[in-house]
Amino acid sequence: MIARRSLLLAPLATPALAQGGFPDKPIRLIYPFAPGAGDVFARAIGERLRETLGQPLVIDNRPGANTMLAAEAAARAPKDGYTLGWVATSTLSLNPNFYPNITYRLEDFAPLCVVYRAPVSFAVTAELPIHTVAEALEYIRRNPGAGVGSVGNGSSPHLTMEWLMSLTGVRLENVAYRGEQPIVTDLITGRIPFYAGSTNTLLPHLAGGKFRILATSSPTRLAALPDVPTFAETVSPVLVQRYWHGVVAPAGVPAAILRRLAEAIAEAVGSEEMRRRATPDLLLEPVLLDDFAALVREEQALYGRLIRERGISVA
């Protein structure tokens, strides 16, 4: 099970954050995706940091190479705290296990704060008479190689399904799509039997009754889906997985600046404004500094074993 204690901070005094001479100019955040709705949290954090630190957060979009282009730029930025990087599970926990020639390591960064975590949902088309995980596993045993749609080989949903297969002995075929909406369309129409991916992508379509969410990979049931069990309940207590997004600085930034940045970001994540913007599947529970680094190291080891044992590749 991937589980770390989270450092939840009480509201911080704004004047204290503004003291000490840092920052005295805008802070740049290298963001690994194209501009759009996906950067809503980065922009919300920027709005809050303008209030608490007295400086704006300028978002520098650097999409490409499965977040690696942005990560490389962040790792090589000046070590003064004025350039940060937005990272994800793929950036630090998965990519180092998939790409032997990757040009950065965890040690190149000073992890600051996990912004949010979210579970993977496992769903089945209503075209099949399947209502539980047990029934799904029985169906897959009778139909080995049944397709499960995910956003790509080596993605968090794909790894979650590989973990499920390793624990149960069933065999699913990962069907990689470019984006989640096409998977939902095929799930609704019955073109693909199973889906693994973002819970929030499914929620707007759930009332139509064209598919059923059988389980999530969260440690406890989601408030938005109180009747949907977890994999921990239905398969194994160890099957808990949540993908995350967070903020890092280049390694070598002075410790006092790292602490100031981490606390300011954590305060932003815990704000009422962020909670209003959060979708029902997101856990806004900051994980800071050494705890963030420990989470990544634990995931790197766990996913590394799974990738080797299952022969998973991103090809």
Describe the structure in your own words.
By secondary structure, the chain is α/β, with parallel strands linked by helices. Helix content is 38%, strand content 21%. The chain contains 12 helices and 10 strands. Strands 1, 2, 3, 4, 5, 6, 7, 8, 9 and 10 form a 10-stranded mixed β-sheet that branches. The radius of gyration is 20 Å and the shape is globular. The two termini are 27 Å apart.
Concise structural overview:
The protein has 315 residues and is an alpha/beta fold.
Which helices and strands occur, and which strands form pairs?
Elements (H helix, E strand, L loop, with lengths): L13 H5 L8 E5 L8 H13 L4 E5 L6 H8 L7 E6 H10 L10 E17 L7 H10 L3 E5 L5 H13 L3 E5 L4 H9 L4 E5 H4 L8 E6 L14 H4 L7 E9 L4 H15 L2 H6 L9 E2 H22 L5
Parallel strand pairs: 1-2, 1-3, 5-6, 5-7
Antiparallel strand pairs: 3-9, 4-7, 4-8, 4-9, 4-10
Could you list some keywords that capture this structure?
315 residues; alpha/beta; ten-stranded mixed sheet; 10 strands; globular
- Low-confidence stretches at least 5 residues in length (pLDDT < 50)? 1-19
Q: Hey, roughly how much beta strand do the residues contain?
A: 15-25%
Query: Could you give the distance between the termini?
Result: 27 Å
Compute the gyration radius: what is it?
A: 20 Å
Range of helix content: 25-40%
Topology pattern, helix = H, strand = E: HEHEHEHEHEHEHEHEHEHHEH
The overall average pLDDT, rounded, is 92
User: Count the helices. How many?
Assistant: 12
Shape: globular
Count all strands and give the number: 10
